[in-house]
Amino acid sequence: MVIVTTVLMASNQGNFISDNNETLSLAQIAQSDDTPPASWLGISTGINYGGILALTGEFKIVKKTTLAAYAGIGTWGYKLGADFRFYRNYPRSMYYIVGLARATGLPEPLELQLETNNVPAGENVLVTIKPVTNLNVGLGFAWKLGRNSRFILELGYALKVSSGDGYSVPPSTGITENSKDLLSMMRPGGLRLGLGLSFGL
Predict the structure, then answer these.
(1) Given this model, what pLDDT does residue 27 score?
(2) For the chain, how big is the Rg over CA atoms in Å?
(3) What is the pLDDT of residue 17?
């Protein structure tokens, strides 16, 4: 009788150890599944952002800091940039942004109808679109859409740090202040608004 009881206790103890190990294993798997991706790939659009359409990538550097890079196309040529993102709670929370972006300009002069000193009503003027570099600062928000996907919203400001106007017109053409203001509005810089989707890798 004692022998049978001892065998049963040993058997139950073995089952407990087995069940405990199984539970621990399941917990480890669950914990592994909850680990957020360290890299993200996505698309975006916006004003003074990655362009009309851009491909974006984000890579974790340390616990709450990432490097986001993007390449797109906009009204001022191709757009290339990189931003550091400082999250409050990576990867889905508010975050702070600081970075640089460069619009490459256009290879050929762009013909625009602008007011000139000679023709106040406007005439066709060849405008050379030059590269422009901006310093970006702002806030971003990342919301969970699915298990490994996010919706991104960014608000901020793009400050021009490159020299010059970012454009030029033929010396013989005298454009008015209104035309200069129009070209400055078209040039990258100012209010920054971005929307995007990203998917964990």
Answers:
(1) 42
(2) 28
(3) 45
